[in-house]
Amino acid sequence: MEPFWKTKSLQQMSRPEWESLCDGCAKCCLHKLIDDDEQEDMVVTTEMADTEQLHFTSVACQYLNDKKCECSVYLERTKLVPSCVQLTQDNLDQVFYMPSSCSYRRLQEGRGLPSWHPLLNKGKKSKMHQAGMSVRGKVVFDNMIAEELYEDFIVVWPLNDLD
Ligand code: SF4
Ligand code: SF4
């Protein structure tokens, strides 16, 4: 029998199916900047226009457990971090904002799940970490870096995708 992610659209999935799709890479816990020709400085963003370019930084939310790549305040996250944007079936139009390796973006773009995805590896994240597709060991935290310095931490590795 074909797995649910091959037979259902993202909108058709149940809540547990939707949740299980997340690979736990934590790339969405990195701060992002937009580069807008009309502005001199790059700014922290949660929105983007057609003329703007999105850059990932290696600056992660202070509440990220960077070894497990898990949120340490999951139940309180929206209270503690108002800018913490969680992708849901209701805001799928924001999927562009996720890295290209993000499971939701891959499925939305018809690219399927990669071989390193935990769902294809008995729920384990080890293949993903080994493939360098998570943030493990690559980040600094936002409570250590002034926001105006984020530009110095722009990186391209979050854009990498495999398979
Ligand atoms: S980038 Fe996508 S797949 Fe990775 S942790 Fe965030 S929501 Fe999950
Ligand atoms: S609050 Fe948790 S889920 Fe939100 S950005 Fe921070 S670590 Fe990630």
Automatic annotation (TrEMBL):
Gene source species: Psychrosphaera saromensis
Pfam hit, one: CxxCxxCC
Protein name: Uncharacterized protein
